[in-house]
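Researcher: Here's the sequence for the chain we discussed earlier.
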Amino acid sequence: MAGSVKTEEDAGPTDCWQICPRELIDWREWGDEFVVRMAGRAETHLLSAAAGSVLLAFLDGYTSMSIDSLFARAFDEAQAESKSAMSIGERAAMQAIIAELERLGLVARSTA
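Model: Thanks. This is the structure I predict for it:
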């Protein structure tokens, strides 16, 4: 279908995402709750601790990142690097987090 959008299930190892350009994001973390405010759209969202960690990985570098690089950056880097690959469950969880961040308009699939 022409013009169709890829879903998170279609995410391949070379697909990348990045913070949406021109978005001012303010965040606060309280225990296992992570609150994000997008000033330009006057929206506030409550994220899980895992989703907050992934968002911080994006905000830390403002670069386009793959699922594998996000996993390594957002979670225990030593543990992620010692593994040959993410487990199926870890990959599914990362894809779900990225899909949610995409749905909220916080990140977008990179064209690079």
